[in-house]
Structures are given as structure tokens and as C-alpha cells.
Specification:
Shape: globular
Structural class: alpha+beta
Number of strands: 11
Distance between the termini: 33 Å
Largest sheet: 5 strands, antiparallel
Strand order of the largest sheet: 7-8-9-10-11
Strand content: 15-25%
Number of helices: 11
Length: 363
């Protein structure tokens, strides 16, 4: 399907307007994200299993966490998942006790399992009297704030600007792009950039991926991770010693982030991404089969597969590129991603990038 000159001009005008709005919004969000990170630095503790206690909040499914000599504190759901894993209690069973308001039984089970643990210590990360991370004492702690600052500084050297920023309870992500409209083929304006993600609480390893946004509808796709780093390191013998390790690891990672940005944003990488879009636009696909394969591979659920098929098969030719191509399928997944919460949305954007072949771009 070939677009008319009028349709091409309208798409270009719309894209330029959206770009300017995204840039203004992104600047504000980047400042807010940094401020949020800096004002919510975690406090760290290294309790032994016997120094840990879980207290029930009666007539509820809620338990609180307490360390020897400290006040009880609330537990973030992410941290509770980590506790369940360390205690060897299936999450479905934990959920049943919570839903049945059996806080006393839940606390009893957790205390029994924890007090019998063979682990020496755990790393507990706390923000505003809420436990957000319950980790191994081998977890390598790094402060996201200077790492994010390094990412922003290096990306800015290339002229990139922040477009989407989120500082969630247990992770942060920042998408940046060059403020220039690229056209991999006639009538298809896109932005190219990268997406940085990190968690100070074990909610995913540090990640820096190539990123593409289709400007007509702001569908986004993520490429292969330029980083593959798990936060594991030397055992933390005590808090005073680990602070030095903490600072050195943070400095090293901030420098590494700068190096990866340099590679992701080099001109050859950008050209390759545009070529992949063009190839995906020209490649015809059996969308139903491709979506079924994603479901069989446990990349998407049955319900997600159904919704993505409906989106792909719709008559939509603005939110999605026209045709029966791999590029349309990628955008159908990316459009569906916008309906999901941030964490799942990023996973679906990565899947959309795989459909296009963005994992082929070295980063």
C-alpha cells in the first residue's frame, strides 16, 4: 500500500509536533526522576536470620518486618516475593494466606523458615520505613543516581534528549532519543535512541538497550541489551567496609554505562536499525502463526495473544503501519504494550523489537 503525497506530508507534520511535545515532557520527567532517586536512597542492614521477625497485623493478610532493635516496617510486594523465595514458600500459598486474612499463619510460617535458615546474613534495603529489597548478602549494591547521571551526561553529548522517564518503587527507566525525525521508508517517521533500566532492589539487572519509536503513534520497540550484568560480588562482611565497595562499584558501572552509550549511539548502529525497519516493512508474515509461536514459547499469555491478533487484524492504518508485514506485527505488540503496566510494557516492547530483528544490532 503506497501513501499519497498528502498522507506523507500529514504524517511528517504530525511527527514533528509530537516530537516537540515529547521533548518538553521528557525534560521535566528527567529532572523529577533524578530528584526522586536522590531523595529515596535505600538504608541498608545486614541482619542474621535469628535477628529477623515477621509480625502479623491481625484480622488482615498483612505481615510486618522487624529486625532486632528496630521498629516494625511495612513490606513492599516485590520484597515479599523475595522473602517467599528465600524462605522456600511458594508464592501461590503466600497469596492464599494473604487473601484468607491469615496473617498469623503467614507470619508463623515465615518465622519458622527464616529462623531455620542456613544463610549467614541477608541484605535488607529500606526506604521510608518500607522494606523494598530482601537480598543475599552477596548482592552487589550500587547507587542508581550517579549511574543515571552518567547515562544522561553521555547521551547528551550525542544530542539525545530524555523522552520517557519513570522512577518506580523498585526500578528506574529512562528512554532518550536523538531529536531528529528519521524515515526508514517513505511516510514512516521514527525516532532512534536507547532505554536505560536499573533496580537498586534486585528487580532486574542493569540494562541499556537500543530503542525505536514510531512517531505517528508513539509505539516503541527495544533491542538487545548492551549490558548483561548481574549484581553479584564479594560478600559484605560489615556495613562500614561495604560502603567503600559500594562507591567503587557505582563509579565503575557509571563509567561502563558511558561506554555502552558510545557504542549504541554510533552512526553505524543507527543506520542498521533503520535498515531493519525497512526490511521488516517489506517482509510479509503469517501473523496468527507468529503470535501463536510467541505464546507457545511462553513469551505472551493466551489472553495477550488474542488481544494482539485483534489489534493486528483491525482496519487501523494510523496507529499501525498498513500491510501484512513484520513491521505491522511489531507495532501491534508495541501498541498492546501501551495498555499494560510499566514493567510488562517494557517486556512487550523488547518482544516487539525481537520481531523486527533489533537484537541483531550489536550494542
Amino acid at each position: 500500500m503506497r501513501l499519497s503525497r498528502e498522507e506523507i506530508m500529514r504524517a511528517a507534520t504530525t511527527a514533528e509536533g509530537k516530537l516537540q511535545r515529547l521533548v518538553e515532557y521528557g525534560k521535566t520527567r528527567a529532572i523529577e526522576t533524578l530528584q526522586n532517586l536522590q531523595s529515596n536512597l535505600p538504608q541498608d542492614y545486614l541482619p542474621r536470620p535469628r535477628e529477623i521477625n515477621f509480625e502479623p497485623v491481625m484480622d488482615s493478610g498483612v505481615v510486618k518486618f522487624q529486625m532486632k532493635g528496630k521498629e516494625p516496617m511495612s513490606i513492599h510486594t516485590h520484597a515479599l516475593h523475595q522473602v517467599a523465595d528465600k524462605a522456600g514458600i511458594p508464592w501461590t500459598y503466600m497469596q492464599t494466606m494473604r487473601e484468607d486474612k491469615q496473617a498469623d499463619l503467614l507470619a508463623h510460617n515465615l518465622n519458622m523458615r527464616m529462623h531455620g535458615s542456613t544463610s549467614d546474613k541477608y541484605l535488607v534495603r529500606v526506604v521510608n520505613q518500607e522494606m523494598r529489597g530482601f537480598l543475599s548478602d552477596k548482592y552487589r549494591r550500587m547507587d542508581s543516581s550517579p549511574i543515571v547521571e552518567s547515562y544522561l551526561r553521555k547521551a547528551t553529548e550525542f544530542g539525545a534528549v530524555p523522552l520517557e522517564c519513570q522512577c518506580l518503587d523498585t526500578k528506574v527507566y529512562i528512554k532518550m532519543a536523538l531529536p531528529h525525525v528519521y524515515k526508514p521508508y517513505e511516510g514512516e517517521p521514527v525516532l532512534v535512541g536507547m532505554c536505560f533500566q536499573n533496580s537498586d532492589f534486585g528487580d532486574g539487572a542493569i540494562s541499556l538497550k537500543a530503542w525505536i519509536m514510531r512517531l505517528v503513534c508513539i509505539n516503541g520497540m527495544l533491542g538487545e541489551d548492551g549490558f548483561r550484568k548481574v549484581h553479584l560480588g564479594a560478600r559484605l562482611d560489615d556495613i562500614s567496609f561495604s560502603q567503600k565497595t559500594y562507591e567503587l562499584d557505582t563509579q565503575t558501572m557509571a563509567s561502563a554505562v558511558s561506554d555502552v552509550v558510545q557504542h549504541v549511539m554510533n552512526p553505524a548502529s543507527i543506520v542498521r536499525r533503520l535498515e531493519l525497519i525497512r526490511a521488516a516493512h517489506e517482509k510479509k508474515v503469517d501473523a496468527d502463526k507468529a503470535i501463536d509461536d510467541l505464546q507457545k514459547g511462553s513469551k505472551i499469555t493466551k489472553g495477550e495473544a488474542k488481544d494482539i491478533k485483534e489489534i493486528f487484524g483491525s482496519a487501523e492504518v494510523e496507529m499501525l503501519p498498513p500491510g501484512n508485514s513484520a513491521w505491522r506485527l511489531s507495532n501491534a505488540i508495541a501498541l498492546f504494550a501501551q495498555k499494560n503496566e510499566d514493567g510488562r510494557a517494557l517486556e512487550l516492547e523488547a518482544l516487539a523489537g525481537q520481531v523486527v530483528g533489533l537484537q541483531q544490532v550489536a550494542a
